[in-house]
From TrEMBL:
Pfam families: 2-thiour_desulf, DUF1722
Domain of life of the organism encoding this protein: Bacteria
Domain DUF1722, first and last residues per copy: 193-309
Entry-linked InterPro entries: 2-thiour_desulf, DUF1722, UCP037004
Transmembrane segments: none
Protein name: DUF1722 domain-containing protein
């Protein structure tokens, strides 16, 4: 992975900025302190940046969940066009930040990316089908960038998947910035093979064919298709069964080196993981030991075995 720090957009309140309607914040210690060791955050507060004061009357989404209006809760002042005009300018401004992803504030009418309450025009119970104007425009403008909200990051599997995709996106952006070539793409893809296999065999096969026939396409089109398929595939959840298949595939590279008891220990750990008795880090650690011990250069370069910094402990909980 690239040694340079990635840039990740984030709702400002999650970093402790006192920008909420009541003058408070929603500091997330894990995001700010733990993830902050590996990424630089570009903070955004739609409500303050579009010109609303602190403190201010709370907002809510009202009307059609597919295109709701943003209005104040009590006085019913409509800020939809004001927010939309600002958001359109902001996403263009952010295009110059080279973001690798974005972390939104969950449930926020201006910063929530999904499942935000939308109230019916005539009153009644809200439905959890809305998204804030800024997140909606951001995701339309940057469809390949990984996005998540702070609430969903409490789920270990969703957290690991999101951060894995952040590091892959950052690596892809670094590759694109380094005079990319077909040969470079082949090398990049080779390092991602096992990671793709753990998420989607369909996308793994599709990307393999795309790279193999890369000479038939103009390089910009090839890179665009590769990036789109890559991020689409990695978004598919890697299950214990898929991980176990990849781990067994890795183990197959040591047919000539491992003693029978070493192979049996590895197989047992993989099965214990598949059954949910040990976390993924356990069999991965053993296989990384074999990679170093027996000098397997191909496996040593596989992102799958080290997709993110070890001290994030992401694979200790899945």
């Amino acid at each position: 992975m690239s040694s340079e720090r990635m840039h990740v957009g984030i709702s400002a309140c999650l970093l402790g900025h006192k920008v909420r309607y009541d003058g408070g914040h929603q500091l997330d210690q894990y995001i700010a302190r733990t993830l902050g060791r590996y990424m630089d955050f570009v903070h955004v507060c739609p409500e303050v940046e579009c010109g609303l004061p602190i403190p201010r009357e709370a907002l809510r989404l009202v009307g059609d969940p597919a295109m709701p209006r943003l209005v104040t809760r009590e006085s019913r002042v409509d800020h939809t066009e004001r927010m939309r005009a600002w958001a359109e300018r902001k996403v263009e401004e952010l295009s110059r930040e080279e973001l690798s992803g974005f972390i939104f504030k969950s449930r926020s009418p201006s910063s929530g990316m999904e499942r935000v309450k939308v109230y019916p025009e005539g009153g009644g119970q809200p439905v959890l089908k809305g998204a804030g104007i800024f997140p909606r425009l951001f995701m339309e403008r940057f469809p390949l960038l990984p996005v998540e909200d702070d609430g969903r990051l409490h789920d270990p599997a969703l957290r690991e998947n999101f951060i894995e995709r952040l590091f892959v996106m950052h690596a892809w952006q670094s590759f694109q910035a380094s005079s990319p070539s077909l040969g470079g793409l082949v090398s990049f893809h080779t390092k991602l093979k096992l990671q793709l296999m753990a998420h989607s065999r369909k996308h793994y096969d599709e990307l393999g064919r795309l790279v193999a026939h890369g000479k038939e396409l103009a390089l910009p089109e090839l890179l665009a298709r590769y990036a789109r398929t890559l991020m689409e595939g990695l978004k598919i959840r890697a299950t214990p069964r898929k991980h176990a298949n990849v781990l067994q595939h890795i183990l197959g590279h040591f047919k000539k080196e491992l003693a029978p008891d070493e192979k049996q220990e590895a197989l047992e750990l993989i099965e214990h993981y598949r059954q949910g008795n040990v976390p993924l880090i356990v069999p991965v650690t053993l296989l990384n030991h074999f990679v170093r011990k027996y000098g397997k250069a191909y496996l040593a370069e596989q992102y799958y075995l080290r997709p993110h910094p070890l001290d994030l402990r992401l694979r200790n909980e899945i």
